[in-house]
Amino acid sequence: MSEHRVNDAIRLSRRRFLQVLAGGAGVLMVGIRVADAADAPLPPALLGDTFYDLGAYVRIDREGNVLIGARDPDTGTGVATALPRIIAEELDADWNRVSVIPLGLGVADANGQPRWIYGRQIGGIGGSIPAAWADLRQVGAVARWLLLQAAARRLGVPADRLGSESGTIIAPDGRRFTFGSLVEDASKISLPKTVPPLKDPARFSLVGSPAGDVDAHDIVTGQAAFAIDQQADTALVAVLAHCPWPDGKLKRIDTTDTLAVKGVVKVMQLNPEPDQPWGSTVIAPAVAVLAEDTWSALQGRRKLKLEWAPGASAGESSAAMEQQASTLLAGDTPPTTRVRNDGDIDAAGKKAARRLSASYVQPWLAHATAEPMNCLVRLDKDRARLVVPTQAPQKAWAVVQRLTGLGPAQIEIRVPRVGGGYGRRLDHDFVAEAVMLAKAVDKPVRLLWTREQEFTHDYYRSGCVHQLSVIINRKRQVIGWNQRMASASSLAHRGLPDNRLWTSELEADQLPAGLIPNFRSDWYGQQSAIPRGPARGMPFLSNAFAVESFVDEIAHLLREDPLHTRLRLLGKPRQLPLSAGGTLDIGRLLNVLNLVAERIEWKNWLRSVNGLGIACWYVNGAYVAHAIEAAMQGEKLIIQRVVCAVDVGRVINPLGLEDQVAGATLDALSTALNLAITFKNGQIQQHSYKDYPLASMAQLPDAVEVITVPGNRDPTGASFLAMPTAAPALANAVFRASAVRVRRLPLMKELLRML
Confidence band (pLDDT; 50, 70, 90) for 368? Predict the structure, then answer.
């Protein structure tokens, strides 16, 4: 099976199988259960009678074909390839005989409480690979151990005298036994009481070698089935008309014309549950039209006569929010939170030879996922079955459980390939809507959002304003750094205490903290009824733009090479202690910075006809730098070259990592160039991609040159690693090319205003 897809011809049966559980704490737990028990969450393909069980993730048939389950949702980050390759590596499987299937949510009942069968299941936040590395290696090692034991019993030799390689077990005399010839016996052997020895990394053949995405063929040929493609014969299609104001209410409704539309079955009202946090209930008051098909539902919605009454949010505007932020930062109002305070900024000011201050403004942003929100749900008396495009199936489970009261193992959630997440699918308001409707009509419901709803009813990334100032002494050293940020926290209305709301906006250890003796970081919290939530690359994205742009301005003030300024700030290679624990490896950060500088020929930065810009950052144990070459042709910006270097420790799939780095770079450039959400009188003004224009191919570089640093440290995440440094590197290149310093995003609008 050279294409890594599930064989549609697998025959199904119910049979006893062994279960290997990778616990959330990294402990390998072993148990036995029956496949037709109420808590069986496995996809049908993992219950086939042509395949034998070697744990909850692995099935092998007599022909040597291998099925491996991918536990985390794949939102385009490549985890459906990377995670199974970790298992396949320890198993010593032949990758050409491996098929990968999404596992969906794994949950069992532990005295009324959920027990997560596959451990942590969450995708698209940069944590899948580091969280899975130890657990999934153990899973593969156990499966290989079972095969070795089967071969040892057949040959009458100790298992430790046997070897394994590419789907075979090798005897001391050189004879080879395929996995398929051993798997029936192996499936009957009791699991080990301790974890078998793991492979020596020197023997890795899959980890560290490039592999194409297991779903690539189906995606490019249009065969991939996303959640929005799922159907159920008896399901009603539900579409919604949301209130324009999240805190508004329905004042008047006339459903006469809607109910006259052929195929329309019912019209219902939905309201947010006042005691539930954002992201777990209806996002705004809504009217749902349920019909026998999508066309009828949409036609019925169009004929609704609705009058909405605004709430307090009707007085809000993005322009007023920005003005309020600027006023807060310009005054003497104490900050909401003093995030960090090293040394004595006031004392350092007495030694100032030079000072520099600048403000940076960034807009509100939407997620703009390719696949709109949707959910297929069927509720029976004792079971709920859902197909959901979610990044966090365990959070989706919590919403379903709260609304239905069903036991942990009575809720089944399937997660096909997800059409983009960017943090939006960490929230499950749309799941709550679907479940509420299914409960009310006592029929399966297929909820579909429209593209307009995606833009007008999102959990946005808040706009923000940064004010930075530095103190430079007579030796040209930066001895004081004062940064202030104002924004509306994305953690508001989510059950966190007020003194933790800053954590979605800033990092206490973000650069250049720890590099400058007198360092202060303040956050000013703003209030808003506009929904906010997790967003790709935050809080690194907005902070890196301000900090790395400002470092460039310091270099310009000092009339020195911007690379040299960064090297001086970073200092010698060393381990820098972090306030949250762990260390920042300055040597690794210097390395990625120097790699992009060398590749783009930074030595010519002053003499180059085009503008060169550079930036670096640190993200959760990983290191990234960008160097960009840009040119101006009249009012047209041309991005000539983009180079990105990343250090993520051990690389699982180099090709997948390169794809992630290139994709995140292009996403960051598109965001920086064009994108902004604005609202007036409490209503979002962008309704489609026409109003929220992603960058065209003509605006973006022909290629992103990716440099990956080889390493043997445990792997770190990379799904958004390349996001933070692309925008400041571009803005710095634009300054060299045009002499215009862009301190406000989106860049193109500001650049054209200033030219």
Answer: very high
Is the Cβ–Cβ distance between 106 and 121 less than 8 Å? yes
In the predicted model, what is the mean pLDDT of residues 632-654?
97
| pLDDT average, residue stretch 338-348 | 96
Fold of 16-220: Aldehyde Oxidoreductase; domain 4 (3.30.365)
Contact by Cβ (8 Å): 46, 66: no
Please write the tens of the pLDDT for every residue from 603-619: 999 989 999 999 999 99
pLDDT of residue 673: 98
Amino acid at 450: T
**For residue range 477-529, what is the model confidence (pLDDT) as tens digits?**
999 999 999 999 999 999 999 999 999 999 999 999 999 999 999 999 999 99
- How far is 124 from 79, CA to CA, in rounded Å? 9
Helices (H), 491-571: 540-558, 562-570
Q: What is the pLDDT of residue 50?
A: 58
Alpha-carbon span 233 to 83, nearest angstrom? 34
Q: Does domain 318-365+460-754 have CATH number 3.40.50.300?
A: no
Residue 411 has pLDDT above 90, yes or no: yes
- Residues 312-330: what's their mean pLDDT? 96
Q: How far apart are CA 632 and CA 742, in angstroms?
A: 14
CA-to-CA distance for 83 and 721, rounded, in angstroms? 18
At 592-601, the pLDDT tens digits run 999 999 999 9
pLDDT at 39: 37
Q: With contact defined as beta carbons under 8 Å apart, do 134 and 26 qualify?
A: yes
Distance CA 159, CA 192 (A): 13
Distance CA 251, CA 119 (A): 46
Residue with tokens 């809607």: 258
Please name the residues in contact with 373: beta carbons below 8 A apart, sequence gap of 6 or more: 389, 424, 425, 429, 430, 447, 449, 453, 454
Residue with tokens 């995405």: 213
Q: Can you give the residue ranges of every domain in the chain?
A: 16-220, 227-311+373-448, 318-365+460-754
336, 521 Cβ separation under 8 angstroms: no
> CB of 60 within 8 A of CB of 95?
no
Do 318-365+460-754 and 16-220 fall under one CATH topology? yes
CATH topology of domain 227-311+373-448: Aldehyde Oxidoreductase; domain 4 (3.30.365)
DSSP tag of 159: G
Task: Give a three-class secondary structure readout of 697-717.
Answer: CCCCCCCCEEEECCCCCCCCC
CA distances for 481 relative to 29, 121, 154, angstroms: 49, 40, 70
Tell me the pLDDT band of 200, cut-offs 50, 70 and 90. Answer: very high
Region 471-480 average pLDDT:
97
For residue 24, give the 3-state DSSP assignment.
Answer: coil
SS3 for 294-328, per residue?
A: HHHHHHHHHCCEEEEECCHHHHCCHHHHHHHHHHH
Cα–Cα distance, 16 to 310 (Å, whole number): 58
- Of how many residues is the chain composed? 755
Whether residue 623 contacts residue 647, with contact meaning beta carbons closer than 8 Å, is answered with: yes
Res 52: pLDDT: 66
Structure tokens that stand for 432 in this block? 């709550």
Taking the C-alpha atoms of residue 185 and residue 180, their distance in angstroms, rounded to an integer, is: 10
Question: Per DSSP, what are the bridge partners of residue 30?
Answer: 20
Position 463 confidence tier, pLDDT thresholds 50, 70, 90: very high
